[in-house]
Amino acid sequence: MQIMAFNILHFFVLCVFIPTMLCAVMRVKRSCAEVKGCLRQFPMIVDLVEKDKAGALVTLTYEVLLNDVCSKQEELKTCLAQTTCSVFEQSYTGRATRDVLSYICGAGREALLSEASCFSRDDFELGIYQCSKAMKLETDIAALQIQTGIGDSTSFCSVFDSLLKCVQLNVQRSCSHRAADFASSVYGHTIKALAKHIGCTFNFKS
Q1: Which of 83, 145, 171, 182: disulfide with 151, CB 3.0–4.6 Å?
Q2: Secretion signal: which residues (predicted)?
Q3: Which residues contact 135 (CB under 8 A, 6 or more apart)?
């Protein structure tokens, strides 16, 4: 069980914290066909989840487009509920997309629209990228702890917590406190399913 959890986490670390073209290819191969079918209507959120593309939020700051995406929310939930992916990492993107969509269409909607000018700034995406880059050392340490038996899969919980705090700090520095809360919550929802899967608990706005 611990080895399987490490494999999932290692895959997650590679594809979310260190986004590359190789990771994109790996993700396509890993996600089962049923989940990919469910996600075809949500490319911008999939980019946010899989490739750590914070700039994908800009598209959703147009209310007409946001309304269109949100109108398909129940359709996505129904579709995902009917999939039969047997391995967690094959359905991870689907669960993360569902959680992010639920947030931006609900509690986070007003902040997304009102802070649109922030999410279109170059330094917004740069700040998120810097957070992902900074997490590389922490993920390497956590992975080493697991490999050597010093820690277990929950060693990654502190990495997740650091990511959310980094996103909050960087966005608040370049935009506003409200935008920072929103961005941190969005990233919290991208890792919510995985965090729950390995037993992590942390607080972010839901």
Answers
A1: 145
A2: 1-23
A3: 17, 159, 162, 163, 166
Q: How many C-beta neighbours within 10 Å does residue 143 have?
A: 18
The answer to whether 192 and 96 are in contact (CB under 8 A) is yes
Q: What is the mean pLDDT of each run of 10 residues along the chain (206 residues)?
A: 41 39 37 86 87 81 93 93 81 90 95 91 83 79 80 79 88 91 90 83 64
- Show the tokens assigned to 75: 């359709």
Which residues have a Cβ under 8 Å from the Cβ of 162 and sit 6 or more positions away?
Answer: 134, 135, 138
CA–CA gap between residue 197 and residue 204 (Å, rounded)? 17
pTM above threshold 0.85: no
Separation of alpha carbons 152 and 74, rounded Å: 36
Burial of 74 (0-12, 13-18, 19+ CB in 10 A): exposed
